[in-house]
């Protein structure tokens, strides 16, 4: 899945293609550009000299060790940025270092959870390390049924809102399959609330949904207003339910940015009225 100028599995220059464009720290494994809604992670073989290494699990998650060379790892700077990237509305990109070749783009990921484990630090002392469970953004499109349709109809908008905000404001202490499932549940909670909030009317053009689905529901598409892609969940305050035409215009139209800005304001006003 492409992300802006990056194509999966292609090799890029970290200095020229990443830092010269997005800025951020040029050393270390976690780059947090101040002017762009993105967190850039670099994975490689450097951790192996300390007895641990990043890599894929059999459950389809990518284990990524946090930063911090001496003492226990803590949730500050880059570690906090990874854990809270969804809450902050920032995309998470992962690159694999390839020595003199450059860095290979592995894709856009979501932080589905994290865990703690004992690992040696730079001085060979045992310490508590943070291990993030990263899942490809494309996997977040998978849906799991957390409720029966009949149950869903009985839940009012305020209950859906509480559920969505609770799900969106935390990254769980979870690994493997449970981390993936937590990501799906989180995405589903936000999606269901946003669609219910729209009540069948596009939140961009204020026109009725163009058609009904086979389930008898008005068809609208969630759009993430603060992020550069629509993969995965986000904070419901920054997700709009829009018709396919508005969705495509936001992404590809000449006035897409202004249309997205207007949607941000519309959702903000709607959320303010619901909260009141």
TrEMBL record:
Q: Origin, by domain of life? A: Bacteria
Tell me which SMART domains the record gives. HNHc
Q: Where is the HNH nuclease domain?
A: 189-248
Q: Which CDD domains match?
A: HNHc (cd00085)
Q: Which Pfam families match?
A: HNH, SRA_ScoMcrA
Which InterPro entries does the record associate with it? HNH, HNH_nuc, SRA_ScoMcrA
> Can you name one GO molecular function term for this protein?
endonuclease activity
Q: What is this protein called?
A: Amidase
